[in-house]
Design a protein that fits this description.
mainly beta, six-stranded antiparallel barrel, six-stranded antiparallel beta barrel, 3 helices, 13 strands, elongated
């Protein structure tokens, strides 16, 4: 079942691998099959954090009890910290060209943007055009499994060292439905794992 897929993070919150729950999760011991062939990397850590890819439920912390092949057994406890905060703060540097459209802004038509980073809670992007803090716009997110058009609210202008594109903005996603949240979460997690440097 898709609901059983978790992102496995180290104690500092950096993603390491993806894991699939095997069996029951109503007790303190969970069996997890490590995917992506990263079992050796997982075993370098004693404690792991677990974030569900498919839902916005609680996050967990687990201590590795034993391992066999690509399976690990964890003694798991629920984290006091809100898993939603962890997901929103999980930010990945990613560059893609896309388009924005006005919702409350006074401009018309569409404008080109280039992304700087993406999280489950928002996006930072560069543009040649001036935007107002607080205005809402629609942005096309092409890196999800199905392209999304999501509503964003501009939070602030961010400094940029790129002379060719002098304006960078941070925006938060608003009014996402569950399916949109899931697609964004999957995209951010996948980009995090793909972009993570491999250990030698």
């Amino acid at each position: 079942m898709e609901q059983s897929i978790y992102l496995l993070l180290d104690s500092k919150g950096s993603p390491i691998a993806r894991g699939r729950i095997q069996g029951r999760t109503d007790g303190p011991y969970w069996q997890i099959q490590v995917e992506d062939g990263k079992i050796d990397e997982i075993l370098e850590h004693k404690k792991l954090k677990l974030l569900s890819i498919m839902d916005s439920g609680p996050s967990y912390e687990g201590t590795i009890v034993r391992s066999r092949n690509d399976m690990i057994q964890l003694e798991v406890s629920k984290l006091d910290r809100d898993g939603g905060d962890m997901r929103k703060n999980l930010r990945v540097l990613v560059s893609f060209k896309s388009l924005i459209y006005p919702v409350t802004g006074r401009w018309k038509g569409r404008r080109e943007i280039e992304s700087h980073d993406l999280s489950c809670g928002g996006i930072a992007f560069c543009t040649e055009h001036s935007l107002q803090v607080g205005e809402q716009l629609e942005a096309v997110i092409p890196v999800t499994s199905e392209p999304l058009v999501v509503t964003c609210q501009v939070l602030r202008m961010r400094p940029t060292e790129r002379a060719a594109v002098p304006l960078m903005y941070a925006a938060k996603f608003v009014d996402l439905c569950n399916d949109e949240e899931t697609l964004l979460r999957e995209a951010v997690f996948n980009l995090q794992l793909r972009g993570r440097p491999k250990t030698s």
